[in-house]
């Protein structure tokens, strides 16, 4: 059997001694006893009020530092809630120059407009060629790449299942030992509880003041016997 699971969170290590419950013996809470449920809720609130406030830095101190390696400018943009600049897709469009750029314009302006349209056409052709190349590579290597990815994910899934089964076995073992220990001492605990209740009632009966005797005319005072 593998070793029991070790708690690494310091907050759990500090507060695990607060767990004090006999779930297999104290059945009046689960049976719907309203008075007991109110008492348990009150005790929980009292314990929570006595506990120190949770310190997030101390609570997560055992975790390794998180380094996402993000651009500081991008982080500032996200923090400022500034929208991302949209991508200019005009350079991927193959369109001739607008009529306003050709009519009643100088030859230099028309030449610049046609040069800009030609550059956009070259960019679009290059984009289509790159897209075709990517599709060919995907068709050639994509299946094997996805098979490898599925194999890796399957291995991770099996490992997680194995770890989950181990944790469940450890949990069942702890619950079984807890149940056996509580049921083994249930009779003793119930006997002690009955004894405590009897002693409490006896103490209350003793503490009740005795009412004074009311003199009755039918009672005569008995004189002590001088011989005795």
TrEMBL record:
GO cellular component, one term: Prp19 complex
One example of a Gene Ontology biological process annotation: mRNA processing
Keywords: mRNA processing, mRNA splicing, Nucleus, Spliceosome
Subcellular localization(s) per the UniProt record: Nucleus
The keyword Iron-sulfur is assigned to this record: no
Entry keyword Cell membrane: no
Pfam families with a match to the protein in the record: BCAS2
Family per record: Belongs to the SPF27 family.
Protein's name in the database: Pre-mRNA-splicing factor SPF27
Organism from which the protein derives: Aphanomyces astaci (Crayfish plague agent)
């Amino acid at each position: 059997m593998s070793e029991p699971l070790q708690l690494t969170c310091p907050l759990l290590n500090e507060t695990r001694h607060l767990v004090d419950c006999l779930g297999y013996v104290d059945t009046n809470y689960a049976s719907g006893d309203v008075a007991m449920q109110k008492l348990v809720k009150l005790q929980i609130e009292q314990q929570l009020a006595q506990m120190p406030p949770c310190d997030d830095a101390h609570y997560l101190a055992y975790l390794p530092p998180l380094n996402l390696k993000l651009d500081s400018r991008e982080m500032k943009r996200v923090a400022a809630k500034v929208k991302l600049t949209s991508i200019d897709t005009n350079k991927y469009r193959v369109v001739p120059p607008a009529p306003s750029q050709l009519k009643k314009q100088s030859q230099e302006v028309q030449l610049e407009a046609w040069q800009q349209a030609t550059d956009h056409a070259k960019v679009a052709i290059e984009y289509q060629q790159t897209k075709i190349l990517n599709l060919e590579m995907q068709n050639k290597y994509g299946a094997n790449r996805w098979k490898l990815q599925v194999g890796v994910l399957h291995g991770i899934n099996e490992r997680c299942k194995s770890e989950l089964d181990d944790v469940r076995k450890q949990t069942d073992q702890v619950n079984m030992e807890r149940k056996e220990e509580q049921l083994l001492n249930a009779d003793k605990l119930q006997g002690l509880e009955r004894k405590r209740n009897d002693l409490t009632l006896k103490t209350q009966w003793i503490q009740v003041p005795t009412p004074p005797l009311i003199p009755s005319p039918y009672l005569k005072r008995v004189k002590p016997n001088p011989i005795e």
